Task: inverse folding
């Protein structure tokens, strides 16, 4: 009997060890490359900020939430006419939803990122910290985080561009022109390394490019790239780097926060990004400040001979941000920056003071994990508004503050107060699903009003704007 008990005990211990350590090894979608997820800002403020600058405000604008899918398989969604019927459909990196009934069609089978699959100790941690009320649900991240679209092969059908979870790669998924089944997949780059890529015309070609951090190999330092989809078809990859950088460059740079705008007012588009986490110094040693390292911006320069180059400017500190919106917040003629702490607390704006000096302001710290931001003119007054909200379980309930908090989705109207200072009027869109890593703002139903599409742990949803 004792021998049987010993055998059972050994088997049980082996089971626990397998549950704890084996699943990431067995299920890893990108063989041989694993990310150390231990670094985190732990919800700390990245700046010494003043009080909140938002106010609650009423409006005649409301939104109707429509659930397209209750399953968790993406952190973003794109809006495009996938089947050439004149109606706007919703696409993720795994499925597309056909308007107007929102029938789901497969693009590629959904996969999970094995690096993020929780271990037994993770389940125990959440169970204990929540007093037995919470568990890790939906488990690992899906591969599909961000979805953009373009007719890459110029066959008259919109293709989907998928920027997958960190290190899973960047792909273009070829539209099969109405045929059912999985779409042909074409890899653009390995080792995508950014949690807030943007799709915008940085290079002045008249068409948007995917701007993202990536690396050429598992061991290479990350760089910033612009992936162009020219009129001739296919894609071109442009490296964005400057000779004068002189900053810490670790293997995960740049990982968080990207934005585009004419920061210095010279008529050329510049690129801005926040720092990542767990930086290394130039000698390969851990940087002293770790999570509190510098972000900054690349100044685009074009010589008289037409040669493109970039000049690096530090903005210190800017840590683990969502997409960075570039807009003149206070009307002084200089573009400022708006973004949120993707894995911490607070939505902020950085006031451009001149001579590469920036002053940080706190807009709203009443919720955490605003991991996706977008700028669009929701109310049609000609001024961009900020759309953002809470990303539920951005670190699966393991590291960020208030991960199980209410998943708000807001839009903020920027107005001037009586003393001339900017004021942010906050409007609630929804408090059921929040935002993922990407939020899209497009007129989905062709009624002249901007709508919102979002993919989160609560599924894929659209929010159709209505006016009273």
Result:
């Amino acid at each position: 009997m004792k021998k049987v008990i010993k055998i059972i005990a050994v088997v049980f211990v082996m089971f626990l060890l397998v549950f704890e350590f084996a699943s990431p090894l067995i299920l890893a979608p990108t063989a041989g490359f694993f990310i150390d997820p231990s670094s985190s800002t732990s919800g700390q403020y990245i700046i010494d900020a003043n009080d909140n600058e938002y106010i609650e405000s009423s409006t005649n604008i409301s939104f109707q939430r429509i659930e397209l899918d209750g399953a968790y398989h993406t952190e973003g969604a794109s809006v495009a006419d996938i089947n050439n019927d004149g109606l706007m459909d919703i696409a993720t990196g795994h499925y597309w939803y056909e308007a107007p009934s929102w029938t789901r069609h497969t693009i590629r089978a959904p996969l999970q990122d094995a690096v993020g699959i929780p271990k037994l100790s993770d389940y125990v941690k959440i169970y204990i910290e929540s007093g037995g009320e919470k568990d890790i649900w939906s488990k690992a991240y899906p591969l599909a985080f961000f979805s953009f679209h373009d007719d890459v092969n110029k066959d008259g059908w919109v293709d989907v561009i998928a920027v997958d979870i960190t290190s899973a790669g960047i792909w273009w998924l070829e539209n099969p022109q109405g045929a059912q089944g999985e779409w042909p997949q074409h890899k653009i780059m390995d080792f995508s390394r950014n949690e807030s890529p943007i799709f915008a015309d940085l290079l002045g070609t008249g068409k948007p490019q995917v701007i993202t951090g990536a690396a050429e190999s598992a061991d290479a330092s990350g760089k910033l790239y612009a992936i162009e989809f020219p009129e001739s078809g296919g894609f071109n990859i442009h490296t964005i780097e400057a000779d004068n950088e002189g900053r810490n460059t670790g293997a995960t740079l740049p990982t968080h926060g990207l934005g585009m705008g004419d920061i210095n007012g010279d008529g050329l588009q510049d690129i801005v990004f926040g720092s990542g986490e767990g930086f290394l110094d130039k000698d390969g040693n851990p940087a002293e400040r770790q999570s509190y390292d510098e972000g900054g911006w690349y100044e685009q320069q074009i010589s008289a001979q037409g040669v493109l180059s970039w000049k690096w400017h530090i903005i210190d500190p800017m840590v683990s941000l969502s997409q960075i919106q570039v807009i003149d917040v206070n009307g002084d003629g200089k573009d400022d920056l708006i973004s949120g702490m993707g894995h911490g607390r607070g939505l902020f704006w950085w006031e451009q003071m001149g001579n590469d000096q920036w002053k940080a302001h706190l807009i709203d710290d009443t919720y955490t994990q605003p991991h996706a931001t977008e700028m669009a003119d929701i109310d049609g007054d000609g001024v961009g508004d900020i759309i953002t909200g809470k990303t539920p379980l951005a670190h699966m309930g393991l590291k960020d503050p208030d991960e199980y908090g209410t998943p708000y989705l807001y839009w903020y109207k920027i107005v001037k107060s009586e003393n001339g200072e900017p004021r942010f009027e906050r409007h609630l869109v929804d408090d059921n699903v929040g935002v993922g890593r990407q939020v899209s703002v497009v007129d989905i139903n062709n009624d002249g009003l901007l709508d919102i599409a979002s993919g989160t742990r609560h599924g894929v949803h659209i929010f159709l704007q209505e006016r009273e």
